[in-house]
Amino acid sequence: MEVDPSALLHGTVDATELQEEFHEEKTKLPLKASPPLAALSLSLSTNLFFQSPKPSSSAASSSSQPLAALPSRLKIPSQISSPSCFSLSSVGSSTPPRFFRPSFSSPAVLSSPFPFLRRSPADPSVGAAGRRCTLVWLRCDLRVHDNEALTTASNESLSVLPVYLFDPRDYGKSSSGFDKTGPYRAAFLLQSVTDLRSSLRARGSDLVVRIGRPETTLVDLARAVGADAVYAHQEVSHDEVRTEERVEKAMEAEGVEVKYFWGSTLYHIDDLPFQLEQMPSNYGGFRDRMQGLKVRKTTEAPEKIKGLPLRGDVEPGEIPTLMDLGLNPAPTISQDGKPAINTSLVGGETEALERLKRFAAECCAQPNKSRNNGAQESIYGANFSCKISPWLAMGCLSPRFMFQELKKTSDRTIADATKKGGSVSGDGGVNWLMFELLWRDFFRFITKKYSSKKKVGVEPVTACAGALA
After folding, report:
1. 436 annotated as belonging to a binding site for a ligand
2. Are 91 and 67 a contacting pair, CB within 8 Å?
3. Quick one: three-class SS letters along 330-385?
4. Record's superkingdom (predicted)?
5. Does the annotation list 386 as a binding residue?
6. Which pLDDT score is estimated for 78?
7. How far apart are the first and last CA of the chain?
8. How far apart are the C-alpha atoms of 314 and 210, rounded to whole Å?
């Protein structure tokens, strides 16, 4: 069977007719077993027909060296743009050749498939496993439980890169000559970061730790792993809000979406019965407006978290020491010769949950000293307070989770007493805890109000209930 090559390239020969003719000639020839030869399979984006060479007498002599008969170079016509698939395998010559094999993919997809997986950040259809990699920027949310940013990133992405940064601007001396971060707070923070890394590793992930400015270090990490989104919890103070703005601007230049969550207060900012700009500037007015508002349910701690991305080969890094942060170790003995109280505080989510468990048990054991309306004014005794503020401030403990667990303990205590035909005094500290956490919410929301981008009229902030009522 002879075919004019020029006619073949110009498309004047019917490919189906050629294939059928070849098949008829092939069936007339007897099949002979031959030694295995190296077969070269080339799939091209242009449908071309390669005529199989007729067997020659030299085939037997080359059986001992099957690869020697192959040409050292393969000439491809200039009309072919690029091959889509190229493979070399050892097969028997009795295998019939494949003709007109269509190209199943584009060369660009094979070389770099990741851009084709990207979706527009504004696309509402981005759902589970819709992102290839999400960078989770952890700050004052050093926990696994009730961490919406971390859980959402793990549910929506193929890989997750949790990152904690030690910003050099948070250390050193302030303009007044004081330490921006003292040695006790820094030691508590280092313990919290270490505990979070252990929790993430137990769930199949890890924590990447760096010393650097977020607007530069986060961009470098996102570029290295090919992240298409950054998830983080919003903060409220002036410096933290300015840092968020710089990160957003830097990520926008890289085409990376930045998505913020809210998780530092008892009540969610989206559930407030007023716009943040219209928030009352006194606690009394704030408390009255918050009456009857429901607390959102917490986010369950995931049993497994998506692993780190393979791209970029990012190392987790070492957790710095106090000396690395420019601080001297905190003294363990106070000036009066007694052990320093701060040294007994161990940072981390694990310690926070243990303290919450002990605090709930102590609240249920408190005798009843309540007001006329039945609300417990405070807890008292040897501990006097819960002393969980440091873990709340670092985000090792969620205020919603704290309220939820204490309420569960109180409900169980009341239910057990009812089954036994008795009664239980007090409310297990739930009302007192609600009162204290509401104060905390007031200060965080009012700070957010005056540190937001939208400038509001200058108005004095007071904690007195009736000052501006």
Report:
1. yes
2. no
3. CCCECCCCCECHHHHCCCCHHHHHHHHHHHHHHHHCCCCCECCCCCECCCCCCCCC
4. Eukaryota
5. yes
6. 40
7. 101
8. 11
Q: How far apart are CA 320 and CA 267, in angstroms?
A: 34
438 is in an annotated binding site: yes
Beta strands, E only, 58-179 = 83-91, 134-138, 160-166
Average pLDDT over the chain reads 74
Fold of 347-451: 1.25.40
Among residues 444, 342, 443, 348, which one has the least CA distance to residue 391? 348
439 is in an annotated binding site: yes
135 is in an annotated binding site: no
Q: Cα separation of 164 and 151, whole Å?
A: 16
Does the annotation list 437 as a binding residue?
yes
Is 351 one of the annotated binding-site residues?
no
Query: 64: annotated binding-site residue?
Result: no
pTM given for the model: 0.67
Cα separation, 303 vs 294, in Å, equals 27
Q: Which residues pair with 173 in a beta bridge?
A: 179
Q: Per the annotation, does 334 bind a ligand?
A: no
443 is in an annotated binding site: yes
Domain coordinates in residue numbering, the chain: 347-451
Both tokens of 7, joined, read 């006619």
Residue 302 pLDDT class (50, 70, 90 cuts): very high
Q: Does the annotation flag 50 for ligand binding?
A: no
